[in-house]
Amino acid sequence: MKLLIDQNISYRILRKLKSFPAEIMHVKEVALLDSSDYTIFMYCQKNQFDAILTMDDDFVKLLNLHSPPPKVIWIRTGNCSTEYLAELILNRSASIKTFIEDPEFTLYELF
Fold it and tell me: What is the C-alpha separation between 86 and 100, in angstroms, rounded?
């Protein structure tokens, strides 16, 4: 499982997600900071990322236009701390894994 974290989520979250059972990268690590959502989406497709974690609904629109991969994990918590967000993702790791592995699902919303 390979996930990319969008720029609207702090890169500092990576340290808190070390126990997440997947390869996780941030757009900063792949030189896509300040890139368009389209560029990031296409990068994920080309580089075989299973999903992008984002707080941005533009990726939902891109998903509808271009289909997966990548799938979209849309975080809909509003403003919250990086620590809270990491805890939410870690607590849902089993259901995120199930979502990634199921070909019928393309969008996962976290509240």
Answer: 18
